[in-house]
Amino acid sequence: MIYKGFEENKGLLAGRRLFLVCRGSFNRLDIAGFINSLEPVRFSGFTPNPKLEEVMAGVDAFRASGCDTILAVGGGSPIDVAKCIKHYSGSDAPIIAVPTTSGTGSESTHFAVVYENGNKLSVAAPELLPEIAILEPSTLKNVPEYTRKATMLDALCHAIESHWAKKATDESRRYAEAAIRLILENKDAYLANEEAGNAGMMEAANLAGQAINITTTTAAHAMCYKITSLYGFQHGHAAAICLPEVWSHIDAAPGITRDEFVSLIGELGMEYPVSENAEADIEVLAGSVNVQRLSNSPVPFDHDQLAEMYRNIVRQK
């Protein structure tokens, strides 16, 4: 169930023994005081791209805690860690998710990402869909500008990719189209950190999450993961610079055109990676692409096509 507004829904947390999964920025949130008053057991021992060994430390902490509910407060990483703790502990504890970015939509999906020996490991199961998601726009007040832009682009990429995905349904397309419309309507107010814009963008990200929960993502997301680790770009930034290259092979305009999307990247000042050895990087990138996600794209891509798309993304220093 998805609830809007923390104040009117904080009763959902009462009476539970909470295992709180969050990052260090949690205490700066307006909602932190109330959550801390419930005396949760807190776990913050993980990095932004969480490692499997960090998750397993969380599993040990959860099992020792005696808690009956996992509360995830944060962006995609804390929510993914919470899901993985449930998965690897074999617990039937419910997950309550309170997102603090408007990008991943992880509060409305049944999958998570964790890294093992530097490689992305996808975890998916129906029981990983949080039972409750609380959308509280005040959590976006302190989001840094770059993260604000990157997460918005992540939500937009989710919606666009879901719309053209081979697994798309009438339901997923309704979610995707509504998400795109809300992103474009709220973009300026959101970037200005206005309350109404934050609320609209948070709802948009959630709708985009519901769309990819049905369809999963496609080639642009498959291409972006190694860019994130190789150049230090945030996930949404990496996905956004890959998407136009994929889009040039696909005939689709789901509420926004390719040219409008490219213009948005420029308007936001999102740069492209620059490398001293671009050709070597391109081979690494092309070899890193997740074949499973490629299979969900309406157009197939081989290694040479991927390399050519990366060649249009990576600039030689």
Write structural notes for this entry.
- Helix 4 (145-164) runs parallel beside helix 8 (235-247).
- By secondary structure, the chain is of the alpha/beta class.
- It contains twelve helices and ten strands.
- The strands form three sheets. The chain has a six-stranded parallel beta sheet with strand order 1-8-5-4-2-3.
Search tags:
49% helix; globular; 2 domains; two-stranded antiparallel sheet; single chain; Dehydroquinate synthase-like, alpha domain; 13% strand; alpha/beta; Rossmann fold; 317 residues; 10 strands
CATH topology of the largest domain: Dehydroquinate synthase-like, alpha domain
What can be said about the biggest beta sheet?
Answer: 6 strands, parallel
Helix/strand structural class: alpha/beta
**How many extended strands?**
10
CATH architecture of the largest domain: Up-down Bundle
Q: Given the structure, what is the number of helices?
A: 12
User: What is the percent of helical residues?
Assistant: 40-55%
Number of domains: 2
Whole-Å distance between the termini?
A: 49 Å
Poorly predicted spans: none
Q: What is the N-to-C order of secondary-structure elements (H for helix, E for strand)?
A: EEHEHEHEEEEHHHHHHEHHHE
CATH homologous superfamily heading of the largest domain: Dehydroquinate synthase-like - alpha domain
The level 1 CATH classification of the largest domain is Mainly Alpha
Shape: globular
Query: Rounded to an integer, what's the Rg over CA atoms?
Result: 19 Å
Mean of residue pLDDT values: 95
With strands numbered from the N-terminus, the spatial order across the biggest sheet is 1-8-5-4-2-3
Beta-strand proportion: 5-15%
